[in-house]
Structures are given as C-alpha cells and as structure tokens.
Amino acid sequence: MVPVSPRHASRLSVATALLLSAWTPLHAQAVPGSAAPAPTAPPPRIDLPPVQTAPSDMAPMPDLGVDWPDPAKIDATPTVGTTEVQGTVADRLKRYRVILEGADDLGSDFKTRFNQLSALVTNQGKPANAAQINRRARDDEELVRQLLAAEGHYDGRVAATVSSTPGDAETIVRVTVRPRDAYQFTTVALPGLEAAGAEGTALAGQFGVKTGDTVDADKVLAAVTAFKATLGREGYPFAKVGEPQVAIDHQLNKATLTLPVTPGVRARFGRIVPTGAKQTFSAEHLATIARFHPGERYDAARLEDLRRALIATSLVSAVTITPTPTADPAVVDIAVHIDRAPARTVAGELGYGTGEGVRVEGSWQHRNLIKPEGAVTFRGVAGTREQSLGAVLRQSNFNDRDRILNAQIVASHSNFDAYDARTFTVGASIERQTNIIWQKTWTWSLGTEFVATDERDTVVATGAPRRRTFLVAAAPTSLGYDGSDDLLNPTRGFRLSGRLSPELSLQAGTHAYVKMQIDASGYQPLGDRVVIAGRARFGSITGVSRDSIAPSRRFYSGGGGSVRGYGYQKIGPVDVDGDPVGGRSLNEFAVEARVRFGAFGVVPFLDAGNLYDSSLPKLTGLRYGTGLGVRYYSSFGPIRVDVGTPLDRRAGESRVAVYVSLGQAF
Fold it and tell me: At what angle do helices 130-150 and 108-117 cross, to 10 degrees?
C-alpha cells in the first residue's frame, strides 16, 4: 500500500497502523518462476482543481515598494469540485458534513476504518474555511485509495466534491467511491517450507490464503499471524516467517503472494526450568500444572495454556515462558520466569434478604501460606441472623491440575424462625474445580464432615420449645455437568448436578439416613438482548423420620436462592406457632426472562415450590411467587436486586420480599 501521509498517520489506531505499515505490495515486481510483467503506471487519480489559499501575515517588502495584502480583506473564491465560497475569512468559517457514497458493497469494516482515519470525519462539526476543507478532502481521497488497495481494488476510483453557497449554514463534502473488481492471487508461494520434509505439504495446506482468493491485506496479515501459531503448534519452536511480498500485475488484474518460511527442526518437550532469583514454584509443581510432559511433541498452544494457568493462581503478576535449545536439536527445555503478585488479600461482602436480614462478611487470606498454593483464609460473618468465625485451607493444583484439597474448621451461630443452632464443624474434601478461565464440563467432589450442634426448635404438635444436641458424621459427594456458555452469566446451554450425602446422627440413639438433591437449569437466548432461563430442584431424605434429623440439616424453601417472593425458609410445614419446621423432601421451579440493555437489565420472574414431610417430593400444594429484578452487569459479574411477592399470600406473610446479591439467581 502507498505510505500513509503524515496527517493520517497521527490518527491511526494501533491495529490499523500495523496493517498499513506491513502491507506493502510491490507493483510490477518479478515473481520467481514467472516472466516479469512490463512496468505499468499506478491507477490514475482524479486531481482536484488548484486551490487559492489566503496568505498568512508576513513582513512588508520595501524593496518592491508594496506590502502583503491583508487576509481579512481578500475576496477569494476557492473551489473544490462544485465548491462556491465567497466573503471574508471570518464569513468563510463553516461547519461541514461528510457523506461517503458508493462504499455499500465494501462492507461495514471499510466504512468503520474510513471513519477512524478520515481527516474530514475527525474534524466534522468544527468550523473550517474552504482551504482547510479542500486539504482534508485531498487527504481523504488518498486515504480511500489506500483502503481500496488493501482490499484488492487497485483500479478503484475516488473523487471528493464540496458543495456550498454563501447562504448555506453547512457545507456538504461527498467522497464518492467506485471500487471496480478486486484483484485475485494467481500464485501463493511459501519458499523454504520444503525444509520441513513430508510435513511441509500439510503445513502449506494450513496457510489461510489460497490461489484464487481476493487480494485482501487484512486476510493476508491474519493468515500470516495464524500460520506462525500453526508452526508452533505443529512442533517447530524456532520457525521464522518473513514479511509477505505481493506483486501486482495491473494489465491482468492479478497478483502473486510470496511468504518466506524457515521452519527449523521439529522438536519435543524437555524439562521445565524455573528461572529468576526468587522462584514462586518448583519445577515439580510447574510440571503438575503444565499439560505436557517430557518427550511429547512441542506445542506452543500448551505453553500459552501454562501461562494462563499460572496467572490464574493469583500468585503471579507476569510470566515469561521461553523454549530453550538443548544439546539435542530435537529437544527444547521450557524456561519459566515468574514475577510474583501480592499473596495477601483482605475482602468484604455485604448482602440483604428478607427473612435473612443484613449479612456482612470479612476475610483475610494468604494464598501461599502452605506451599505450594496453599491458601489459608480466616473468615468472619456478622449478621442479624447469622454469626460465624472460621479458618479454611484451600490447596490448589493438589497433585494434579485443577484438583483442590479443602479443609475447614468453623464455629457458627444461626438464629432463624425454624431453629436456633450453635454449631462446630470440621470437614475436608477433594474436588475438581471449575473457574471462569477454564470452565469445566464435568466437576466432582468427595468429602467428610463432622458436626457438633446444639439446636433449639419446637415440638410440632404442641409448639413446646426444646433444645437438643446432635453429633453428625457425613460423607458428602457431588457430580456436576456444565454445558452452559458462561460460568457467571450463562446465556445458552444447560447444567445438571447431583449431591449425595450419607449421614449418621447421634441423638437419643443412632440414626442413619441419606440426603439427596438434584439441580437442573437451562438457558435459551431469544435474539441479542433476551435470555429465557429456567431451573428445577428436587430433594429427598430417606431412612429416618423428620424429628430425628437435626433441624439445621433438613430441607427448607423460600428466599432469594429458592422461591422468591417469600421470606427465608417461609415455605413448607409449620408448627402451631406458625414457625417453619423443615421437611424431608422438596421441589422447586423457576423461570425468568433476562432482558439486557447495555450494562443494565430487567428480569421478570415466576417461582414455585414446596416442602413435604414425606421422603419423596410431590407436585401438590405448590406456592408461587413472582416479581421483577434489576441487574447491573459489572466487570466481576452481575449484581442483582430482586423484588418479589407471593401470589397466594397467607396471613402473616409479607407482601414484598427483597433480595440483593452478586450473580444471577441460578
């Protein structure tokens, strides 16, 4: 492409500057193996008429006996195309409007790039005189020729005309484009690739530009970038790709593309070698995180995966991963240099829900207290209904990539209408995690839990208060499938998960039972702004009566994460005083429409559900709630406020329930 004029260069975006500087077709350049075409002149340009501009103030010239004219008194009539402007300099300052004609068939990208680089568009709306408008029109003519050449339209024609009369309040500048047919590549050559031997032909087939393709600078540069990545993925760590050279034949409206390639030796992975004075992770732990092993064929994509995985640990602020030659040309070691990130975090969370009240949570975390990646968190909760203090160990990448070892010890107090519990919990688990960088299709967990809890509830038949102490041992397990497109804000797909927890309870005897829960949700977009989301939940406790289960371990329903429109735990069986007593089974359903407008959205919803004393859920006596939510889509996830109301409100139930939290309801 013709070099960009200085006035345009100051307005180039980074991406466009790279495009225009790298795309330098060689007109009438000889192509190896073909006869050199006769030199031809570049496409004729339509020059604008000369412009008479008002001179600036200058010193008098006494030797000639005359002074320079006063610019404010010149009655000049400069013309560009059909321009007709008269009057003093002050009178000639006008606003103008730019119209690009004839570019509809070139696509929206052409217009977008013109608007980004145009001297006329950049200054549109600002007062300008005829000389300034004329100069910008000439610049934009040249710009459009360059943009046409970038898309292969070397024979395109461009003309700028300016229409204005002394009485007009606005000048109209029309830039008219006649693209003509785009040139095509008759030859695409990758000299040097034959050094790759038998793999050379297959590699050449992966280059994104083929014979017969339209000459398009964007496509060529994208293909070159992708081909460099392809060579890295196919085992060539030190491959070199030269600059693309394009030869244009204006007589035949054809072009040739030549891309020099030096593939080097196809290699295998060697050792991972940490570098730097302070090493965050050992070579062994880096090998645990990496998705490659010594002896496997080199693949640059796996280095990028390792880089992202290291950043995801939150212990790394920057990482440089470099293939390093060894004594064996077919083996490369991987040098990893890490810049540490701060390891400590102080965090807080604030929430509110009808029935739950205000909940404030604060935590202090050291993410590498127990190396490697052993994050220890001390967390405290202060709320109107809940208070707790605990410590949690979370050791990431525990003996395998994305495997997490968890351990916790928590003392808590919960005071709800259903029960008042003072609980001490010790637990441990191992799980396969999912996260926003690598959203896993399958996740699982295996754990153990030991609970000592002193709880107050009532005798259902009489309402008499009682307090009992339970000792519970549980082995919770879970398995989940995630087929949605986003972890925090899904718009399509579905999720399915199940939880199974065999439990043994000691209180006035030994009671064994199994607690099960199944959750399913689905997401279907309707256009660009609306997503229909639905969910269902089923739960069951078998093997024991409700009264033998600790109140805090029964099923409850109602609230922001359950059936909206009702207070927390307000759905289901109640005692003689109207307080909830929980159940052995439940079912819940919800459907909502997520309508988004930029960073905000509204969510009308309808929820339903109920609890049952039987071990299997039923579909009778469902309670319904409906309402409207508001979403703010922040950089770290949706912030939601839902306001709901029960459709069949009973005496003592609130008319309105409000829920505030981070993330979608499901």
Answer: 140
Domain borders along the chain are 43-52+72-178, 268-340, 368-589+606-621
**Residue 506 forms beta bridges with which residues?**
471, 510
Report the C-alpha gap between 453 and 470 in whole angstroms. Answer: 5
**Residue 654: φ, ψ to 5°:** -70, 150
Q: Helices 130-150 and 217-233: crossing angle, nearest 10°? A: 50
What are the pLDDT digits (tens) for 582-609?
Answer: 999 999 999 999 999 989 999 999 999 9
327's CB contacts (< 8 A; 6+ apart) are none
pLDDT tens figures, 384-443: 989 999 999 999 999 999 999 999 999 999 998 889 999 999 999 999 988 877 889 999
Coil/strand/helix, residue 459:
coil
* Distance, CA of 432 to chain centre: 23
Could you confirm whether domain 368-589+606-621 is CATH 2.40.100.10?
no
Confirm if 638 and 662 have CB atoms less than 8 A apart: yes
CA distance 122 to 115: 8
Specify the CATH superfamily of domain 43-52+72-178. membrane protein fhac (3.10.20.310)
- Contact between 331 and 268 under an 8 Å Cβ cutoff? The reply is yes
Peptide bond before residue 39 is cis, with ω within 30 degrees of 0:
no
The answer to whether residues 603 and 626 touch, using CB atoms and an 8 Å cutoff, is: no
Instruction: Please report, for residues 59, 80, 91, the alpha-carbon distance to residue 52 in angstroms, rounded to integers and kept in the order given.
Output: 20, 10, 16
Amino acid in the structure at residue 375:
A
Rounded to whole angstroms, how far apart are CA atoms 281 and 287? 10
**Amino acid identity at 540:** S
Q: In terms of pTM, does the model score above 0.90?
A: no
Tokens 């072009």 found at: 255
Q: Per DSSP, what are the bridge partners of residue 646?
A: 625
Same fold for the domain at 43-52+72-178 and the one at 268-340?
yes
